[in-house]
Amino acid sequence: MKYVDEFRNPEKAQALQKEIEKLSQQIDRHLKIMEVCGGHTHAIFKYGIEEILPDNIELIHGPGCPVCVMPKGRIDDAIALCQLPNIIFTTFGDAMRVPGAKTSLLQAKAQGADIRMVYSPLDSLKIAKENPHKEIVFFGLGFETTAPSTAFTILQAATENITNFSMFSNHVLVIPALQALLNNPDLQLDGFVGPGHVSMVIGTEPYEFIAQEYHKPIVISGFEPLDIFQSIWMLLKQIVENRCQVENQYNRLVETRGNQNALTAMNQVFTVREKFAWRGLGEIPNSGFKIRPEYAQFDAEVKFTIPNLKIADHKACQCGEILKGVLKPWQCQVFGTACTPETPIGTCMVSSEGACAAYYKYGRLSTMAKRDKSGVSPQPLSI
């Protein structure tokens, strides 16, 4: 890639759109294709991709937003940590406004907790060096995309013997989540647009079970509009040709076996939890990372007493159903009224990768103006 404009070329987009239209005419049923990653969801709405797809192709928004899938209990555990004496709590910015049962990290900061936004876990390590008499806790969030940077930071802390640094691990794994979705009888999917950033780390091999066991096609996709158009075209081509394979559209960055340095660091620092609770999906076996006993001195769950709370979501919020792809954001009764990016009730409206935030920012008016492809007419909102 020389210039990003190459992947936003209108003429090439129109050519792909025509090819997608031709393929869709060879399919005599309604197709549901899930884009797993929240980054894809935002690109789809930003560039109006869903609006110009054939009527028999429906895009379903998946659970690939790491902040969105955090259950309230883990957020409240983080808030409990930051309220301990002598603690500096560090986190990525998109976790600050995620609502817990009673408050958020941003509100806890306003109430006096020392919470600092960072761009990298290495920033947290720097803060630990600058504040040797404080305990620094980093809020480890994300799929396999961000887990390597956390692992490398812990290895660096061990090398430098920085004893006042620890991490509250909430890293989750994409493959068990996909398996849980495929086992959900309420969600019948015809194919997947696979997550590009996660796949840069884990490669394409882990997705083979989707094609071999569940007989669904999957195409690993980049994030530019032409990437997504081409990935949808590749999926339709598989369906028309009655194939189920793992294909790699994002081959300029994704390799079959992934990033071996990143995988080695993750395997050295982390082990897989027996189960981890996901918002909307419940407890999924083997779906989260915890820190290995060899690095327990950097594990906030070992170093501090954490409540380990389990808290139900707000009754009015249907973020869980949206994360599972069962509902669209506008079908939630509080979308755009009680729940907005400024006053979020659920996580899907908070994160820059959340489906509700994408609808609200890019796709809301156009989506409300027409009949949804699922066949359910949009309900008017009182705003």
Secondary-structure blueprint:
Layout: H1 10-24, E1 31-37, H2 38-46, E2 57-64, H3 72-82, E3 87-91, H4 105-110, E4 115-117, H5 121-130, E5 135-142, H6 147-160, E6 165-171, H7 174-182, E7 191-194, H8 196-202, H9 208-212, E8 218-220, H10 225-240, E9 246-248, H11 260-269, E10 270-272, E11 275-278, E12 282-285, E13 289-291, H12 300-303, H13 319-323, H14 355-369
Parallel strand pairs: 1-2, 1-7, 3-4, 3-5, 5-6, 7-8, 8-9
Antiparallel strand pairs: 10-13, 11-12
How would you portray this structure in words?
With 383 residues, the protein is an alpha/beta fold. The termini are far apart. The C terminus is likely disordered.
